Amino acid sequence: SKALPTPMHQGAQYSLAHLHAANSDYVSAIELMVDWFQFQPDPFAESFMFMGSNYAALEQYADSLPWMERAIERAERPIEDWYQITYSIHIELGRYDKAIAMLKTMLRYWSQVPEYWEALAALYQETGENKAAHDTKMTAYINGMLRTEQSILSLVDMSLIYDTPFAAGTILENEMFAGVVAEREQTLVILVDIWIAAREYDKAIAAIDKLAAYTNPGPNYMRAAQLYVQSGDFAGAAASAEKALAADIDDRIAALVVAGSAFAELGEWDKSIAAFREVANIGNDDERDNAGNWIRYVEESRQLRL
User: Fold this and answer.
1) Alpha-carbon span 123 to 145, nearest angstrom
2) Which of 13, 31, 44, 245 is the most buried (most CB within 10 A)?
3) Are 262 and 237 spatial neighbours (Cβ–Cβ below 8 Å)?
4) Is 43 within 8 Å of 76 (Cβ atoms)?
5) How many Cβ atoms are within 10 Å of 33's Cβ, its own excluded?
């Protein structure tokens, strides 16, 4: 019968296996370790991880995974590198459900690692669980774990679908103020659109004012003026229309009509008439006729109020 190897022999065999692995001879390392395991009643966790890493180096991921999982089970404390490697193998094998479970466990131990939050959200998106992706990103954001412009803008997009425009706008505005998201034309246009969708017209105007540093904000002021009219805020409509006119918009007639009608609603007769007189001066026949009707209406309204 074959004699049992001595502890010294076992130790030498384990060291030799590591030497083969260091020289990229993973097959020989595995063969030595298979023999080594036969005579180990209670192998230590690192030996399982070493065995799994050899299979992984050979890209034999299905063979590698059970060894990795056993190593994690037997470890006295969570070892982050081991979880990372095992997670990566799940991804290589397309086992996204297992990868998600692994990331959740990793976040229990290492919740302050932004990359794990991002990876979990990305996996949820990959598997079509977009609401879970949003919730993960929102939790990460609340805990200060979203630190890049790209991750914040992604959360803003998701919040428009799964939360409210107000929540999305608040996040974007706060992160622009903090400097995480750059204040530039593209992001300001997004912010304007969000605040308009949230019917937060004063906030939209504030963002449009900042847009003036990057581009002609006239069309956006005009959008805001029309929305103020729809909401019955004629003071806001008049102020926005005047800003649109000062910014030099292409459709000056439309802005003058909004300004004139808003001033009429406010009882600012002279300003209303001045706006419609300009329409009459620069408009086509139909626009002049419309301006004339408005001027008569304003004059009659003023007389009735006297």
Assistant:
1) 17
2) 245
3) yes
4) no
5) 25
Residue 181 DSSP label: S
Whole-prediction pTM value? 0.80
The token duo for 234 is: 């004629």
Query: Half-sphere exposure of 289 toward its Cβ, with a 13 Å CA cutoff?
Result: 3
**How do residues 51-82 score in pLDDT, each as one tens digit?**
999 999 999 999 999 999 999 999 999 999 99
**Cβ burial 154-178 (10 Å sphere, 16+ → b, else e):** bbbebbbebbebbbbbbbbbebbee
Distance between CA 145 and CA 139 in Å, rounded? 8
Check if the beta carbon of residue 46 is closer than 8 Å to that of residue 25: no
Q: DSSP string covering 183-212, please?
A: -SHHHHHHHHHHHHHTT-HHHHHHHHHHHT
Question: What SS3 state is found at 306?
Answer: coil
Secondary structure (H, E, C), 244-262: HHHCCCCCHHHHHHHHHHH
**The two structure tokens encoding residue 269:** 């007769």
